[in-house]
Design brief:
Length: 335
Amino acid sequence: MFLVRAGAIQGFEQLVSKLGGNPARVLRTTGFSDVQLRDPDTYVSYVRIADLLDSAARACDAPLFGLQLAAAQPALPLGEVIVLSIRHQTSLWEALEHAQSHISLHAEGLHIRQLASGDRVELQLQFDFTNASGLLQLMQLSAAHAFNTIQQLVKTTSRQPRLHLPQWEPPTRYAVPERYAERVIFASEFCGVSYPASWTNRKPRDDENLLRDHFRQRIEELEARHPGHLPTQVRHVISGLLASGECSLERVGASLDLHPRVLQRRLRGEGTSFRQLLRDTREELARQHLQHGEMTITELALNLGYADIAVFSRNFKRWTGLPPRQWRERNRGDD
């Protein structure tokens, strides 16, 4: 089974309603409930998400539903990993390579290749699975996510980058969302984004306002979902930061607008600690990916913030009594 964060389709229900559809009915067609998608850090079947997007496009008579959904989403759909890559990479090329190396924590079954092609660079998206439509809407959404990310990394007023889709252009009555107008290339040889080769060495934007706005929105979402329950809020922030390698008490505190000492004190009042929540979050994610995902043990360890694979293996055995590979063999596919 391939997994993706539910946050990839943030705003789905609102868009379906706006287009005149019934979100609950569309969700039922692919076996989802709104509760399953309420938490953006929950992992769900990638193939079923692709089917859900296709169902919504049919129900709403919206052949560009994937583009419309991406256009309505926040600027940083991949979460904290991309936010932090903006601040630490020395060039656009390196920032996108960084995102590529961590994409498996957001979506398993999606691969990104960055290739120089003449005076342009192509960011090609490839999937390990397909569905009845050939992933029509999922390709739109994913390519638009890549487009949005590059737009944030490079401040420009030009008509670049370009969004590439293999599908044919729909009839003119179905307008491309304004955010992507005159930037979409239909019937392309690949799914993804291209940008001028001259951009590769540009320093990505180090936008404090962007970072602050992202974390402010994160806090609001956490408070709305888990009002007053700080340990749950902390675990959600941890799950978003692990792959960045910067999942520290200080970074989590900054995400929640709390000084580290205040955060520690409040967690003690809840009968727990940052260290315990970090351990619990790592164990939960490890079990989920080993049971249902496709990551290798090495990839999983790196995405959980371990620089040493042996340390992850020892910790996992201490949690479960079995090393990761053996645990996966015994529990693979169990419900």
